[in-house]
């Protein structure tokens, strides 16, 4: 028995194959997510809503 709790970050061969097939579209997916984030940010700007990653994403973009 283990005394400490932890995480298993090992990737299965199936997941590795899926990721390998999608990696060429990574930048496109990231750009889509940034556009979605910006739409939410714009539409929520006058509401008392906090977006968790707002500061981090603004600095990266």
Write the layout of secondary structure elements.
Layout lengths: L12 H10 L3 H18 L10 H7 L1
Can you give a write-up of this model?
The protein is mainly α and 61 residues long. It has a domain at 25-60. The protein has helices at 13-22, 26-43, 54-60. It is flat. The termini are far apart. 0% of the residues are buried. The mean pLDDT is 84.
Number of strands: 0
Describe the main β-sheet briefly. none
The termini sit apart by 45 Å
Q: What is the helix content? A: 55-70%
The chain-level structural class is mainly alpha
Features:
61 residues; mainly alpha; 0% strand
Question: Concise description?
Answer:
The chain is 57% helix and 0% strand. By secondary structure, the chain is an all-alpha fold. The protein is flat and about 50 Å long.
């Amino acid at each position: 028995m283990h005394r400490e709790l932890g995480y298993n970050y090992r990737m299965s061969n199936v997941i590795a194959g899926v990721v390998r097939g999608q990696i060429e579209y990574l930048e496109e997916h990231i750009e889509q997510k940034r556009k979605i984030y910006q739409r939410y940010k714009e539409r929520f700007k006058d509401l008392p809503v906090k977006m968790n990653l707002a500061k981090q994403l603004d600095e990266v973009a």
